[in-house]
Design goal:
The complex is a heterodimer of chains A (about 150) and B (about 290).
Chain A (H helix, E strand, L loop, with lengths): L1 H25 L4 E6 L5 E12 L2 E5 L5 E13 L2 E13 L2 E5 L1 E9 L5 E2 L6 E2 L3 E8 L4 E7 L2 E3 L1
Parallel strand pairs in A: 2-12
Antiparallel strand pairs in A: 1-2, 1-11, 2-3, 3-4, 4-5, 5-6, 5-7, 7-10, 8-9, 10-11
Chain B lengths: L1 H20 L11 E2 L25 H4 L53 E2 L36 E7 L4 E5 L46 E7 L2 E6 L6 H8 L4 E2 L7 E4 L5 E4 L8 E6 L4 E4 L1
Parallel strand pairs in B: 8-10
Antiparallel strand pairs in B: 2-3, 3-4, 4-11, 5-6, 7-9, 8-9, 10-11
Classes of the chains: A alpha+beta (about 150), B alpha+beta (about 290).
Chain lengths: ~150, ~290
Amino acid sequence: MKVRLFRFLTATLAAFAVFTISVTLAARADGTARIQQTNGTVNVYPGVKIQIIHNTLAMTTADGSGTLMIYRAACAYQGDVLVCLPTGATLVQGGSVNPIRIRQGTVYANLTNEAQQLSLSTMHIPARSIVMALTTQKGTYVTLSGTIDKVKK
Amino acid sequence: MKRLAALLALVTLLAPMTASARPGGGGGGRGFSGGGGGRPAPAARPAPQRPSGGGGFNFNNDVRPQQRPQPQQHPQVQRPNNNANMNRPNNGNGNRPNTGNGNRPNTGNGDRGNGNTVNGGNKNNNNGGNKNNNNGGNRNNGNNNNNTNVNNGNRNNVNVSGNTVNRTVVNNPVYASGGAWGWNHGVAWAPAPYYWGGGFWGAMAIGATSAAVGAAVYGSIVSNNTTYTSYQVQPSSPGATFLSSYQLTQVQCGGSNQVVVYGPQNSVICANPNNLVQAGNYTLNTETLTLTSM
């Protein structure tokens, strides 16, 4: 009886360990978004997945329920850092797609495998990472930083 | 029993890893931890203004107005220059009044919308000897004027049929062979609204008075009864790349004998002439960073 119990526990724990490791590897999204409303309310979203797919920048909440997509921007390289002024954004969330009107903002994308220093700044952007800040027409302030999880051209 | 104890210890070790892999520490399907101005909030407590009906980014203020009917579509019917379309829904650009671009140089090819047709067969005609030979497909254009070359071997004549306008294209001395957007690692650049010059000269946001907020004014240019204010080009901007490629230094607009460059979205900057670019008015092609005389 003890042997059977032991084998059952062993199998269960082994399966649990495999599941845990797979979850740990899959949840590599480490982006952090911060959204501040005009009334001062702040929401912080850890675990944001950052993807650059077909020249769009998509940032998805950790549970996948919301995606803010920047689909149009004026981008120019400053050294090895791609600097973009976003002009078009869309929020895909809750079964609907809504445009987000951007007032101004800047996206710094380091697509290289080495950390890059911003021009005229002491700030470094880690390898394959994004640093972003933008303000919407309604005054919502959005920041995002984190590693790019996927790049697809 | 020892092996069982070891397995239990393994469970103890794995438990925190599972918790850390779960985003936000929240329960169920929600993955966000709300916060109020940086103070720690209980992970299970929903954010103060989280969208109703589940998780996702909080863009309540930005999304909500889009669902309302927009009454602003009606005034467009009363716009001028709408003679032929009074009874049709106003859904096109054909009824909008000219915003003034017709009177200023085009920032693209320089030949659009002015009734002139560029003779394609006359491109890249390097005139080392200052002679303007007739090119195939370029008859009857009456353009026998020679261009003044600045001995850089880098100029092309663009003859415009139908009138006597001769335009000089000064190829970019650095990026001429780089193809489209070669100056930008091949990445297409497009002007961004709400920035002076579309952001080409730097991320200078345009304020309510159409002036770039916080940017240093670099004089102004009056053209066709319109005053174009110039601002200081920001370092590391595409405009700075353009200036350095031509070895130009920006100066205050308004003086004589200047290189005046009309850039994207009604922007203008000025520079002193050099051995690459002689004084005059130019339009800038942002795709190739070439200058075309006006």
